[in-house]
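Deliverable D2.4 — example input (structure tokens):
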């Protein structure tokens, strides 16, 4: 097990589920060449001892493992009749986005479900296979006041390959002051922004760090590093918990984050009013290209034929109602084939962030 990865305990049925994914992929190598007199070496080429799959901790690890449990059988059903066998599967949730990227680079992880920002940082060590599609939202505006005037945000039927990050103020006195100013049509000053306590994510998180950095640069010539009071949260769940308790006044999150934590706001986080009543958008970033499913370049398991088979299996699963329910844990609605150049804009964003960090430290 690689450092920084939390392994989940799986039943034999769970193991076989993802196992089938790997097996299926490996088996494609034999398609078109197999016959009743196939040699033992041909059979071995369709067998994978252990497939290592990792998810980033954008939500609670236990929640991710529970939600993806049905995916195991779906992969068995989708790939099993192709003749592939996986003896074991190791499913992990990284302790950080970087931990999954490092695992892909070293080859201790075969397949990673990672956001575009993490992919770009580690693209020397991994290859993007698929990009997620997701339901669009009822609001898609550059103006934060529009998000507040038209809340609550709901899902639309339109499928999109991008999402936005929002800067959201909470129920603390300072948070309310920020929201009120935006809703009154006033522009926030740098002193307004810098005077608040912020929750951000790790530096490779597009919605929790990178694109908020770009927003700060576009509006104030600043970055997250310039915020006097900013703490890094290990998950969006802990970020919303801090917002609800008043430990922070504002947070950076993907645009449908409040929809995911709406029920916890009044249950786990013990607020008496609803999340839509107690929070306001104070900033909207540029569109961010969707999450990836990426393969390790160092993994011997991830042959070209295996990658094609695994990709097709995930596309097929994403096209079913049952599959959509499973991958909804990441707000995914399906998958399309991807290429490295799809994330060139993300590279530009990260290059800008690097320059901003460099100038801030000089």
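Example output (designed residues):
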């Amino acid at each position: 097990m690689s450092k920084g990865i939390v392994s989940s305990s799986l039943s034999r049925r769970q193991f076989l589920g993802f196992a089938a994914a790997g097996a299926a992929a490996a088996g494609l190598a034999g398609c078109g060449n197999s016959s009743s007199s196939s040699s033992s070496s041909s059979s071995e080429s369709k067998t994978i001892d252990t497939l290592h799959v990792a998810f980033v901790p954008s939500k609670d690890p236990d929640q991710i493992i529970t939600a993806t449990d049905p995916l195991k059988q779906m992969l068995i059903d989708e790939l099993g009749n192709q003749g592939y066998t996986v003896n074991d599967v190791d499913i992990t949730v990284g302790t950080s986005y970087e931990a999954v990227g490092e695992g892909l680079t070293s080859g201790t992880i075969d397949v990673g479900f990672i956001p575009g920002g993490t992919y770009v940082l580690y693209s020397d060590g991994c290859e993007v296979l698929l990009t997620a599609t997701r339901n669009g939202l009822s609001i898609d505006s550059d103006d934060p006041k529009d998000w507040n005037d038209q809340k609550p945000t709901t899902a639309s039927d339109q499928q999109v390959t991008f999402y936005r990050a929002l800067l959201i103020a909470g129920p603390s006195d300072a948070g309310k002051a920020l929201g009120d100013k935006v809703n009154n049509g006033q522009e926030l000053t740098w002193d307004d922004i810098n005077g608040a306590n912020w929750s951000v994510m790790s530096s490779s998180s597009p919605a929790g760090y990178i694109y908020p950095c770009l927003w700060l640069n576009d509006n104030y010539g600043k970055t997250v590093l310039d915020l006097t009071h900013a703490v890094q949260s290990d998950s969006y769940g802990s970020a919303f918990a801090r917002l609800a308790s008043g430990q922070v006044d504002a947070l950076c999150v993907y645009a449908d984050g409040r929809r995911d934590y709406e029920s916890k706001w009044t249950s786990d986080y013990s607020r008496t009013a609803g999340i839509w009543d107690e929070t306001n958008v104070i900033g909207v970033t540029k569109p961010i290209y969707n999450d990836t499913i990426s393969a390790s370049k160092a993994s011997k398991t991830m042959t070209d034929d295996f990658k094609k088979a695994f990709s097709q299996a995930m596309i097929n699963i994403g096209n079913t109602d049952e599959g959509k329910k499973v991958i909804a844990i990441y707000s995914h609605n399906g998958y399309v084939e991807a290429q490295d150049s799809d994330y060139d804009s993300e590279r530009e964003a990260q290059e800008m962030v690097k320059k901003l960090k460099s100038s801030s430290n000089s």
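The longest helix spans residues 61-79.
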